[in-house]
Specification:
There is one protein chain. By secondary structure, the protein is an all-alpha fold. The protein has helices at about 1-15, 20-45, 60-80, 80-105, 115-145, 160-170, 180-185, 185-200, 210-230, 235-240, 255-265, 275-305.
């Protein structure tokens, strides 16, 4: 045990950011398992457009979609896409938190002269763009798993089968469908994390005093809610672009998708699944960030032994 502690101390001193990678990946896995059923519901609500004549019945609301999925597909239906979600969160949060802390240190001069909020925005957007670009193929697969059912024209047996099928039928570009809206969605973290950092200060969450964990939960929940509402339309566009498998595509890009959804579904079309998304992402984000903060402090404690 002593050798293990000594090894960690030496490793942590030489690789400061490793604790952020471990904490971020662990936090992402925990939250993805707990909230997967709501993620399935949100994705299916986002994906359905204007009802076509003779098409299957539409999903209706969070409870209605949960009930229908359970009745038609059982427990497996509620956990479709969990595999690629976990595979996606492992690198996503590890890359994101590591890059976020790296850029905060690298660009510390930006935060001088009472401009710390600019440092948080620059760090959050840079980290978000890097993690999103590197992991987009897994999110395409996750979206397709979550929306596939007995009636969908494509069927993937597992993550590897999905990779092979997409590569064969759609080529490399198939893995990067929806990347444009995802990069636009980087503005989400540019809202969330600066607000989170500010709320942590206001709520005294950066201390080890009793109640600090509650303050972290409150700060992360409020910041996530504000960011989700502000940037939600990009998620609807991203889901529909990622889910297109047969040409001719209904949505030929971001601008065309915006125009089609606006014409066919109106303003509400851009916010389909928002209540479900808030039910999923707010506690998920709170759990992720709390787990991350606690793991970082625990790893720091081991380092300081």
């Amino acid at each position: 045990m002593g050798n293990a502690v000594n090894w960690w101390k030496q490793f942590a001193e030489n690789h400061e950011n490793i604790k952020h990678s471990i904490a971020g990946a662990g936090a992402g896995i925990v939250s993805s398992i707990v909230t997967c059923p709501l993620d399935v519901v949100k994705t299916r609500l986002q994906n359905q457009g204007k009802a076509e004549p003779g098409s299957k019945a539409m999903y209706k609301g969070t409870l209605g979609t949960l009930s229908r999925t359970w009745n038609e597909e059982g427990i497996r239906g509620l956990y479709r896409g969990l595999g690629p979600t976990i595979l996606g969160y492992l690198p996503t949060w590890a890359i994101y938190f590591t890059a976020y802390d790296y850029f905060k240190i690298r660009w510390a001069h930006i935060g001088e002269n009472n401009r710390e909020w600019m440092l948080h925005i620059a760090s959050a957007m840079s980290a978000g763009a890097i993690s999103t670009s590197l992991t987009n193929p897994l999110w395409v697969i996750k979206t397709r798993f979550m929306t596939q059912s007995e009636l969908t024209p494509y069927r993937y047996n597992n993550t590897l089968h999905a990779f092979i099928t997409i590569a064969r039928e759609e080529g490399f570009r198939g893995f990067y469908k929806g990347l444009g809206p995802s990069l636009i969605g980087v503005s989400h973290v540019a809202v969330q994390f600066p607000l989170y950092e500010k709320l942590k200060v206001w709520l005294h969450a950066d201390t080890n005093a009793p109640g600090a964990s509650t303050s972290i939960l409150v700060a992360s929940s409020l910041s996530k809610m504000a960011a989700s509402v502000a940037t939600y339309p990009h998620e609807v566009i991203r889901t529909r672009l990622q889910n297109q498998t047969r040409k001719p595509y209904k949505y030929r890009g971001i601008c065309h998708g915006l125009a089609v959804i606006g014409k066919e579904e109106g303003f509400r079309g851009f916010y389909k699944g928002l209540p479900t998304n808030l039910m999923r992402t707010v506690p998920s984000s709170a759990m992720t960030i709390l787990t991350y903060e606690l793991l970082v402090r625990k790893l720091e404690g081991i380092k300081d032994l």
